[in-house]
Amino acid sequence: MKLSATLDDLYQRHLTQTQRGNWSYQSLLPWERGKSFKTLPWAEGQGSLTPELTVAVETAFLTEINLPWFTAGLKALFETGPLALKEFVKVWTAEEDQHSRILDVYLALSRNGDPDRRAMLRKQVLTDGYEIDGNGGFAVMVYTTLQELATRVFYQHVAKAVDVLDPVLALILRTIAKDETLHFAFYRDAVRAYLDDDPTRIAMVCEVVPRFRMPGSEMPDFPSRMRIIAQNSGYGVGAYLNAVMDPVLRSWDVWERDVPTAALAPRQALLAHRARLGRIADRVGEKEHPAQTAMSSTSRPSR
Ligand SMILES: [Fe+2]
Ligand SMILES: [Fe+2]
Q1: Nearest to 19 by CA among 179, 187, 184
Q2: What is the pLDDT of residues 121-144, one digit of tens each?
């Protein structure tokens, strides 16, 4: 009973915060840059970004377009769950929908990246689909907490990298990052409420975190995309560890908790995973090592 009341509160808090920061994609887009591809076909060098930063924005777009699959998976997993989670998924879907939309239109208006190739990739990614592993609603919330924060940090890094080249894009990315912050806060606190409700769930947290991979990791060229992003925006394994994984684990008191015997081995494995990421970050540094080490070298996520 207390759990469902807390989830209700979190949902109401999200509604209040999201209404305060409400934005619409059409007001942020640089419509004045638009030109017909019929009269002026796309060619390299027409856009405002470097090829590498174009890859970063295109990758974000190709991740965000998986929304129909995310929504389908979350809806199925929360089917028998509390009402607040079901309602949150609806609002969340409406907010995420603006993300792929604004990036798609921005890339076309600004002529960053080949629009024909992007259209082909878009179809391919959506046709391939994205399956959320059926490990239960709690596991998916743990995973999604990491995903939302990772996305926020990623957008912030790319926004900083494009600040001078395209301030309009920087503002778009920071606006999306604010949405991701609110999504992250909802899932983080929902997971915390579930842990308060049943502390043995910490075992599942320790099992899910090491398996984290970004959604979209099955898109073509994902490892090389991650390498380019790490080298050109600084979002790599070190940023993931320090600005995503560690803060999330701290917020759930993963290291300080008295854990049940069943959670001791998974927590030890998580500690080893953390140490491994730390060694990679120390050894190669953000500028040289791809984020894929953190996000694609392990097994599928538990979504
Ligand atoms: Fe998003
Ligand atoms: Fe989000």
Answers
A1: 179
A2: 999 999 998 887 768 899 999 999
Residue given tokens 């995903």 in the structure block? 147
- Residues bordering ligand 1, an ion, CB closer than 5 Å: 96, 99
Task: Quote the tokens at residue 256.
Answer: 């300080």
Q: Which runs of consecutive H residues, i.e. helices, occur in the chain? A: 2-20, 25-28, 51-64, 67-77, 83-110, 115-128, 137-162, 167-197, 202-208, 222-233, 237-240, 246-251, 261-284, 292-296
Give me ligand 2 centre to Cα 180, in Å. Answer: 4
For 2-9+47-296, the fitting CATH number among 3.30.300.20, 1.10.1520.10, 1.10.620.20, 3.20.20.70 is: 1.10.620.20
Distance separating alpha carbons of residues 200 and 257, to the nearest angstrom: 10
User: pLDDT digit string (tens) for 275-298?
Assistant: 999 998 888 674 444 444 444 433
The Cα-based distances of 290 to 53, 133, 136, 217, 298 in angstroms read 15, 25, 30, 13, 14
